[in-house]
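Annex B.
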Amino acid sequence: MTMPKEDTNTMRALQGLENNSSSVRLQAALAVGTTPDPGFIGKLIERCAIEPEFYVREMLTWALTRHTASMTVPVLLDEVRSEHAQARSQALHTLSKIGDRQAWPAITPALLSDADDEVARSAWRAAVVLVPEGEEHELAVVLATQLGRGERETQLSLSRALIALGEAMLPALGAATTGIDPRVRTHALATERLWRDPDAGFEFAIEEAKRVVALGGAGQEER
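HEAT repeat domain-containing protein: predicted structure tokens.
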């Protein structure tokens, strides 16, 4: 008995997602996204949690966004609670791309301060996309607790997230510029500079902020 062509194509795509070759996995994810099928959702999400190649993960995310949100979002919300960091990070990243605000309650303070930098960064990006209108200030207060965290890429991600919230983040940022921790103050001052001058560049803003902090200046006097 010959399998229908659709079943053959489905089987080939599912097998392709697990192929040892990253280029084959990429093509399989592209094929799945090009012809969405609810039967692929579970495998796509499963693969997101373990896929080692960034560009393949991006294609897996794109393929998920091609499916109906009502079918993908509930499964992604389960992944957000996974014990595996990559599963949490990719689920949050995909939720930010889907943009369904019904996912907002899943963006908890625990995720926004996750010990894994990649998870936290994904949570910050998802949060600024999903935050309901009028709750930007409360989100900014939580995000401001992460100022000074990590290395350049992590700090830049947080600065971008805060800036994306617009003027609602200014009180929380202003409070951080006068804090005790010099690392927090430096990051807050750099973020404030980027808010005022988006063309300044993060490296320049950080170096300028370091000089201000080293001289004992509070952001208030340097504005």
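Residues 182-196 form the longest helix (15 residues). The CA atoms of residues 193 and 223 lie 9 Å apart. Further annotation is deferred to the next reporting cycle.
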